[in-house]
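USER:
I wish I could look at a protein chain and see how it folds. I am handing you a single protein, as its sequence and its fold in token form. As I understand it, each token names a local backbone shape. I hope you can help me see how the letters and the tokens relate. The protein I mean follows directly.
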Amino acid sequence: MNISKILMGISAFILCFMAACKPYDPDGNYPPKEVEGWVPIYAKKLDVNTTGAKSIENGGKIYIKGKILFQIETGKGIHVINISDPSNPEKIKFIEIAGCQELAMMGNVLYANSVNDLVSINLADLDNIIVTNRIENAFHMVNKYHPPVRGWFECIDPSKGEVVGWEMKTLYSPKCLY
């Protein structure tokens, strides 16, 4: 073994250590200490459940059937609102559907997305809703593996559940880049 090659290797290591080398990716990006980036939103399970009425925080699309108005709560489910008295709408219940962004109805069946799945829900009896079908991966609403826009993001942790969306937040020393 050539002693000069060993000394050059040791010198390069020491020089790099003294210059505080940063991890490098092929595009020349280094993990910043603080940056605006994407954070995954998790759901433990993708079941459909009903709860009592909730306040509308991030309302989305609506659908009216008779005297009932259905309104998306973006990413969380659907509000069921009685509008028989238009001057006094009454929230009846909330249908929890993780990742919900879209809805449609035909007869007594409500169709909604649950992240990327198509869920059919029989609403003939609002006190006893029944999930009649789930078609997995029918849509491409949410990419479960990386955020919607390139940049730094919080690495996905499968132990927290399934990724049902992404939101922007301040990240500190992120490890993942898309």
